[in-house]
Amino acid sequence: MRKLILTTIVMAILTSCTGPMKNKTEYPVTKKGTVTDNYFGTEVADPYRWMEDDKSEETAQWVKDENKVTFGYLETIPYREEIKTRLGRIWNFEKFTAPKKEGDFTYFTRNDGLQNQYVVYRQKDKGEAEVFLDPNIFSADGTTSLGEMEFSDDGSKVAYSVSEGGSDWRKVIVMEASTKAIIGDTLKDIKFSGLSWQGNEGFYYSSYDKPKGSELSAMTDHHKLYFHKLGTSQSDDKIIFGADIVRRYVGGYVTEDGRYLVVTAAISTTGNELYIKDLKKPGSKFATIVGNFDNDHLIIDNDGSKLFIVTNLNAPNRKIVTVDAENPGIENMVDFIPETENVLEPSTGSGFFFAHYMVDAISKVKQYDRKGVVVREVTLPGIGTASGFNGKKDDKEIYFSFANYITPSTIYKLDPETGNSEVYKKPAVAFNGDDYESVQVFYNSKDGTRIPMIITYKKGTTMNGKNPSILYGYGGFNVSQTPGFSIAMALWVEMGGIFAVPNIRGGGEYGEKWHLAGTKMNKQNVFDDFIAAGEYLITNKYTSTDFLAIRGGSNGGLLVGAVMTQRPDLMKVALPAVGVMDMLRYHTFTAGAGWAYDYGTSADSKEMFENIYKYSPVQNVKEGIKYPATLVTTGDHDDRVVPAHSFKFAAQLQAKQAGANPVLIRIETKAGHGAGTPVSKTIEQYADIFSFTLWNMGIRKL
Q1: Which residue has the higher pLDDT, 568 or 212?
Q2: Is 554 annotated in the active site?
């Protein structure tokens, strides 16, 4: 197939068309209701409240009607299949994850290229690898995926979770590792849970009571930690934590030596209580390490009763402290690896601590011994993101991966005693990173704050303002956007496009202060940072308004929704995915109330309501405005950010769009928030996104 290159874009525009289609897209008739809410004296209409009922036939019919229009539009784009074919070809390479030893076997996952789900393999010594677990046979269409997988202490048993249709609600199955025979009953209705074994007897897991009404959208506020003993019914599982107190997020795990059960409990996505229970002392009760939600704390290792805790208490960039389990408490914590000017993300393995630092979102890794002394700075293969460095204390080797925007993720094996590393698995991708470059620039936001951004493109690209560009962002929940390889974005830059990622406030690139600068009353900073990134790209001729698309998912979908309603003149295309679009009501669905640390809620106060009301995408679509061409994407099984957010936003845009730019919503069936999406569906979605984007930039052929 001929290579897709967009360097001839301008000629294609001049010779093939006079611009995007002028006729307005015909949308399905969408009913408007009369629901109105009063917030501190302000009446706010909610005409599409009926869309929140995910069980209604009316909502289901609307989804079908909208998809019919959307796919009818996409099918007319002449190069859609061409992009899909090329994307499939570049996607088709062997992929691996790092191995780990469990019992007598070494386990790893592999995808031969286009398999919908990764397959779990195992290998004994230097023997032939065999398939241990193949999620591709869980369902005919690949929409059932493997979640967590944890082995018992001796590796003889394994518990793994399964998600159907992308749902956060999981089933857990237990197998005898040697025979692959299923043991006992399947556990059901488990959500937001890890799996952690206590010896070989059973394991801890977390879940909510099954909600009344819709399992997709009903609130889930009371999280509990359970223990499942092998050979017993799930109905007999004991509540270990959370029976008497209400917490939205509860997690439990056993330390590697099996001595302590560690419990984290939180009411929001930031800040947690920390408890431990000595499993070697029968009848022991939980001891409180931290009894408030003011900061984040996590036990990452222990030497007997000496606990190693990563925390941002009095350390916005995080540090590691120690405390004795026999005399716990914040006041007794002692610095082990102090805070630095860079954000710390630690891990442990082979008896060492690996301190991963972000320096302007770029990785730097130092290795420490158990006395807190620096052993060495780990030599990384380049400028990008290193991840991994996890393992058991007796592991002789440590594995880590390295990637950036033009380097596919490569797995390295590190000898922690010598510091020498070697390539373990390098993917053979039909993409030559040497032909591309990523440059980091810094620009000033509206208030003068200096923001880093990495821009990736083909070497030799002429900066004439006519390069199709995707500006991608997130900006929330302390999540950092570090350089990583995306197969889809590799195709985008191969086709001549530009891909830009700014490290806007709300993320964690510069610690908790950077995060807080993009939360609650400061949320507008996030949007201003993103707008300034777009203006930088335009001012410096990387692109122009006619060739700029903005994209983000989840909290990043909110980012796109807010920016396109505040500055519809900035971009030609908007691509909000699974976004939190109705900020006045987000906290009433599933576990949404837990996001209030970042957002605040419309019920908190008049001041907070007014702040949210100013930027909430659903409420800020105005009559008579020419909005950019918009492709909203969501999944009908998204039980994290319910699809009603996207439904309402699309309906508002379709009703009020003044210009000819299309507003479409692509609703993936049997899909959730994104995790576990089959490769086939992912390829189709990106082909549609790229086709829609290029077509609405006026590009009629490739």
Answers
A1: 568
A2: yes
Whether 139 is catalytic is: no
Dist CA 305 CA 327 (whole Å): 9
Confidence of residue 21 (pLDDT cuts 50, 70, 90): very low
Alpha carbons 222 and 241: distance in angstroms, whole number: 11
What CA–CA distance (Å, rounded) separates 220 from 212? 10
Closest by CA position to 53, among listed 251, 284, 218, 253: 218
* 657 secondary structure, DSSP code: B
Q: According to the model, what pLDDT value does residue 142 have?
A: 86
8-state DSSP, 234: G
The model carries a pTM of 0.94
- Each residue of 502-552: pLDDT tens digit? 999 999 999 999 999 999 999 999 999 999 999 999 999 999 999 999 999
Q: Which of 223, 228, 515, 673 is catalytic?
A: 673
Ranges of beta strands (E only) in 520-671 are 548-553, 573-577, 629-635, 663-668
Token pair, residue 276, equals: 């431990």
Q: How far apart are CA 10 and CA 7, in angstroms?
A: 8
- Angle, helices 80-91 vs 487-494, to 10°: value is 120
DSSP 8-class letter at 296? -
Q: What is the pLDDT of residues 360-375, one digit of tens each?
A: 999 999 999 999 999 9
- Could you tell me if 600 and 592 are in contact, meaning their C-beta atoms sit under 8 angstroms apart? no
Is residue 82 within 8 Å of 97, Cβ to Cβ? no
Q: Considering the candidates 193, 554, 602, 691, report the single residue annotated as catalytic.
A: 554
CB 321 within 8 A of CB 304: no
Q: DSSP letter for 291, please.
A: -
Reference 510, options 335, 387, 311, 344; nearest CA is 344
Q: What pLDDT score does 351 carry?
A: 97
689 forms beta bridges with none
Is 288 in contact with 272 (CB distance < 8 Å)? no
Confidence grade of residue 569 (pLDDT, cut at 50, 70, 90) = very high
Cα angle, residue 478 at apex, residues 477 and 482 outer, rounded to 5°: 120
Dihedral Cα 199, 201, 204, 210, nearest 10 deg: 170
DSSP 446: T
Given a contact cutoff of 8 angstroms between Cβ atoms, the answer to whether 386 and 363 are in contact is yes
Between the alpha carbon of residue 288 and those of residues 257, 263, 315, 350, the distances in Å are: 20, 10, 21, 29
Helix 644-656 to helix 555-566 angle (10° resolution) is 20
Question: Taking the mean position of all CA atoms in its chain, how far away is CA 503?
Answer: 15
Checking if the pLDDT of 563 tops 80, the result is: yes
| 3-class secondary structure, 663 | strand
Neighbours of 330 (CB within 10 A): 20
pLDDT digits (tens, 9 = 90+) for 431-475: 999 999 999 999 999 999 999 999 999 999 999 999 999 999 999
User: In the numeric block, which tokens belong to residue 580?
Assistant: 């939190």
Q: Are the CB atoms for 190 and 206 separated by under 8 Å?
A: yes
Q: Report how far residue 424's alpha carbon sits from residue 243's, in angstroms, rounded to the nearest whole number.
A: 46
Cβ count near 511 (within 10 Å): 21
Give dist(CA 111, CA 146) in Å, integer. Answer: 13
